[in-house]
Amino acid sequence: MDEETKKLLVENNEMLKKLVFYQKWNQIYRICYWAIIILSALGAFYFLAPLMSNLVNVYTGGVGTSSIGEIGKNLGDKTQMQDLIKSLNSN
Fold first, then answer.
1. First CA to last CA across the chain, in angstroms?
2. What is the biggest distance separating any 2 CA atoms in the chain, rounded to whole angstroms?
3. Domain locations in the chain as residue ranges
4. Do the beta carbons of residue 80 and residue 74 sit within 8 Å?
5. Cα-trace Rg, the chain
């Protein structure tokens, strides 16, 4: 093997080693990048979940299944219903 070919092989080997090194670091950076994105999304969900539940309660008026049953019991009194209808008709 002549000197010129040997020199080219050594340079090529050095470039390949650098390429492998940068590929490994690129993979580590990519893992860290996605870990930061996923963890920040989970953290945001963890901290915003109570606020969102309060917002849903405000939007729905705080009506749950238990309060609907209580409304049905209160509406069972016909005299109150008739008074309510009369007061609405008078307006």
1. 108
2. 111
3. 1-60, 65-91
4. yes
5. 36
Structure-model confidence comparison of residues 66 and 7, the more confident one = 7
Residue 85 corresponds to which tokens in the numbers above? 């209808």
**Token pair listed for 25:** 């670091």
Instruction: Tell me the pTM.
Output: 0.49
Measure the CA–CA gap between 86 and 91, rounded to whole angstroms.
9
**Side chain identity, residue 89:** N
CA distances from 64 to 45, 48, 49, 72, 73 (A): 23, 21, 18, 13, 15
pLDDT digits (tens, 9 = 90+) for 21-48: 999 999 999 999 999 999 999 998 888 8
